[in-house]
Specification:
By secondary structure, the chain is α/β, with parallel strands linked by helices. The chain is built from 13 helices and eleven strands. Strands 1, 2, 3, 4, 5, 6, 7, 8, 9, 10 and 11 form an eleven-stranded mixed sheet that branches.
Length: about 325
Amino acid sequence: MVRYPLFTPAVFLIGALLVLTPPSHAAPPPSLAISSGTTTSSYYAAASAVAKLFNRKSQEHGVRLATVASAGSVANIDAVAEGGAAFGIAETELLKRAAQGGHPWEGKAMTQLRAVLGLYPATVTIVAAVDSGIRRVVDLKAKRLNIGGPGSIDNTFAGALLQMSGLNPGDVIISHHSTALAPELLQKRDIDAYICIVGHPNLTVLEASAGKRKVSLVPLDEELIKQVTLQNPLLAPVLIPTRSYPGVELRGTVPSIGVRSVLFTTADQSEETVYRMVREIMTNLDLFRRQHPILQELTPEQIAHVTAIPLHPGAARYFKESGLIP
């Protein structure tokens, strides 16, 4: 007679658990990096805002966005062009230079760069210690000035700005620390001033103005603003409001120059992914603008109109459907 093994209650329980246990959660979708800026920068804040809105439906999109810190605009353009990041943020002026093979991309025009979203204006901002006596750009002569790390827009434009103000490179004591470190360096008296090109309000300016060493924002001369903006239509006069910086001396607005920043990618990026990214931002624009004060003034027209490089087909598709571009 054949004897069959007895099935104990424990065996039945194990079998039931094997049947009833739900399948494990699906693996998270792959990530696409947005190369941004230092963690205190407006670039990092803007990239994080884009990622936050897009990632609410990441399973539906089949992909997530991840904000990655970087040295800034030049580094972002290189990272996207070389495949190290899917998206990046940079100013229109630098994107135009890169597309045309201008400095610092001589001999390697990056014609594959494509715009996704127009963002806020990045403004030339000079933060100076009040006790340094720096009231105008020319007062930087013989002073210690930090111009940001290599690969940042601060570093890229600082030399040209000083020369247009009548200062030669040897007239100023230059350092190349990351702008994220500049407020601490200024408060420790290691530098007298620093240049940053940022959206306002900005954490680095707020941090610098919260210390014991009093600071002010240095205005650009009217003639310099007129000269620069006439030479380059991508640059425009901007007034920096000091209301967001209660610790800054000399209240009111500070005349300067601004250049619009852009979220960009390459022509071979998925049209569907870019379309969905733009759609998520544009259909939730009020929520997007609430993510950070630098985004509050953005209009649909500003987001859709970028002239420095061509629009990505996915972005163009959405803007055409919405009637924002012909």
